[in-house]
Inverse folding.
């Protein structure tokens, strides 16, 4: 292998990527990392202003195009896939990151909260991937596999102490769904992997650091006793999408400072 091959071992330059929920939090961290490393990155979320702001901010570092879309329904997934297909004939990387959580006491947990979470966190990654398979297949070859990265959670691996029943179930299901898809897409040269984040600061986790006491209590549950950083989740996603990650498929990788492995 040449020197230039090794320079691109962790490279995503020239790849086309879509990051759902890429307008804030973990999705924005991943999108920014990909843009800064030279990928053309589509981000999507429901709010038009958030999309416009993200496109403007990330375009300072490279190529970013935002497409507002609600992907909590199959129609929404189809709309987003159609919008990408209007602009691109190939997609190298799909990051299914958009998600929501819900906590309520076990005796009061409502079916609506169950359905909203499961629809966005587990059903939509499947159907968006399904609708984008033609573009993912078009980009894939034995030498350059296309990649789906599903964002699950450490809450899908072990109980968190939060009463987020549908979230924990959806994230555990997402990891198993990823492994199943990885198996079935192996000959299409599409890798499917899951990243299970530990604690990252975002709108979703804002109540967990609303006060210094709350923050200290949360971080005490995690081995490194700190929040994850942008480059840690972006770097892992970039590795999975690069030649260095080509031999990895069907795995769930915790990005949590060791919490699920060493306590
Ligand atoms: N932060 C953590 O510590 C942590 C830990 C473990 C796992 N995770 C997972 O990481 C992912 C991102 O979490 P986060 O903390 O960054 O959450 P966040 O700050 O709430 O961001 C969620 C993103 O998803 C978008 N979104 C929400 N509903 C949507 C819908 N129906 N259609 C399209 N986009 C939608 C939001 O934008 P709009 O409001 O504009 O739609 C936003 O861009 C989630 O899957 C979450 O479960 C996070």
């Amino acid at each position: 292998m040449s020197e230039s091959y090794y320079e691109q071992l962790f490279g995503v330059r020239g790849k086309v990527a879509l990051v759902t929920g890429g307008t804030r939090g973990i999705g924005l961290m991943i999108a920014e990392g990909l843009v800064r490393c030279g990928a053309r990155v589509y981000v999507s979320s429901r709010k038009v202003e958030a999309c416009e702001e993200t496109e403007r901010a990330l375009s300072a570092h490279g190529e970013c195009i935002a497409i507002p879309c609600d992907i909590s329904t199959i129609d929404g997934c189809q709309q987003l896939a159609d919008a990408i297909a209007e602009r691109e004939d190939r997609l190298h990387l799909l990051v299914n990151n958009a998600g929501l959580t819900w906590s309520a006491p076990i005796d009061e947990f409502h079916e609506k909260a169950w359905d909203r979470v499961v629809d966005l966190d587990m059903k939509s990654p499947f159907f968006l991937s399904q609708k984008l398979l033609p573009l993912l297949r078009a980009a894939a070859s034995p030498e350059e596999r296309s990649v789906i990265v599903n964002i699950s959670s450490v809450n899908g691996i072990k109980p968190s102490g939060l009463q987020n029943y549908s979230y924990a179930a959806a994230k555990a299901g997402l990891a198993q769904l990823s492994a199943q898809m990885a198996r079935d897409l192996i000959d299409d040269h599409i890798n499917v992997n899951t990243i299970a984040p530990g604690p990252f600061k975002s709108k979703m986790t804002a109540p967990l650091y609303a006060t210094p006491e709350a923050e200290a209590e949360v971080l005490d549950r995690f081995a490194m006793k700190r929040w994850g950083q942008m480059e840690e989740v972006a770097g892992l996603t970039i590795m999975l999408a690069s030649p260095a990650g080509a031999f990895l498929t069907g795995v769930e990788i915790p990005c949590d400072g060791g919490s699920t492995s060493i306590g």
Q: What stands out?
A: The radius of gyration is 18 Å. The mean pLDDT is 97. Residues 20-21, 23-27, 45-47, 50, 70-72, 97-100, 120, 151, 153, 197, 199-200, 202-205 surround NAP (CB under 6 Å). The chain has one domain: 3-258.
